[in-house]
Amino acid sequence: MTLSMHQASVPLFQQMLKALSDVLGKAGEYAAAKKIEPPVLLQSRLYPDMFPLTRQVQIACDFAKGVAGRLAGAELPVFEDSEQTVEELQARIAATLAFIGGLDAAAFEGSEAREILLRPGTPKERKLDGRSYLIHYGLPQFFFHVTTAYALLRHNGVEIGKKDYMGAY
Questions:
Q1: SS3 assignment, position 127
Q2: For 10-166, CATH number?
Q3: Secondary structure of residue 135 in the 3-state scheme
Q4: Fewer CB atoms < 10 Å away: N or C end of the chain?
């Protein structure tokens, strides 16, 4: 039995984004209970040169929709990166889930060999086949940002654990 590109991407993105949304919900509850202004959590960083929590969530969503959409040959929706609250970040996650959930699994057929062009027209332009794009670029990028968002919340005292990170599977 072979694993399709759709099976190797969309269900995984869905699982982790749903878990990220749940973790953000716990962060909102934590902030309210501890009387912490939500922007304090949303702008927290692990180190000054790293992106804050809000940007980590935005980028995780961008990788989920970008990778799945490119593999399916779909036009990607544009998100404005204007989220300022936990609820707005959860809405972005919901929009990402709606987009990737609406991609037809049949559109992924043959995508392992599809050429994916990264950063076209720039000095960093790079061409990858779909399989390499998913396994060596897209998934590691996605997991980096989801993990960093989780770590930021845990570092700031939100009571979450591995089960929260993993979500339902």
A1: strand
A2: 1.20.120.450
A3: helix
A4: N
